[in-house]
């Protein structure tokens, strides 16, 4: 059995509040939200980080990014705004070694984040 928590969520082996899913991607609520809406969108197939997503079909990568945009719109934030973040590697603040993007919305988000 895989030890990767996000692979386990993708396989429905670990509980998560799933909001969207297709054959390639799954979106779910972050367990420790830092904004009123804090979703994670991951490819189901394990890849450790954005940096290591080499050889990916650009169409697949594009659909992953656009999924975040469409989720933000379906949550009602297309007008108010939101943030999409891809923490990558140690200095990028990545703590889970399965590629994911964060969709943050529902409050004013400071920039730069620190
Ligand atoms: P990172 O720091 O790697 O960019 O973000 C990882 C995110 O995954 C964190 O915001 C953390 O709260 C979230 N997270 C870690 N473990 C779990 C889990 O088991 N379930 C869910 N839903 N989120 C998790
Ligand atoms: Zn994984």
What does this structure look like?
This protein is α+β, with helices and mostly antiparallel strands and 114 residues long. It has a single domain, classed as HIT family, subunit A. The protein has helices at 5-10, 58-74, and strands at 18-21, 25-29, 37-43, 83-85, 101-105. Strands 1-2-3-5-4 form a 5-stranded antiparallel sheet, covered by helices on one side. The longest helix is centred in the middle third of the chain and has 17 residues, at 58-74. It starts with a helix and ends in a 9-residue tail after the last strand. The relative contact order is 0.21. The model has no long low-confidence stretch (mean pLDDT 97). Bound molecules: guanosine-5'-monophosphate and zinc ion.
Tags for this model:
114 residues; alpha+beta; HIT family, subunit A; 5-stranded antiparallel β-sheet; 2 helices; 5 strands; globular; binds guanosine-5'-monophosphate; binds zinc ion
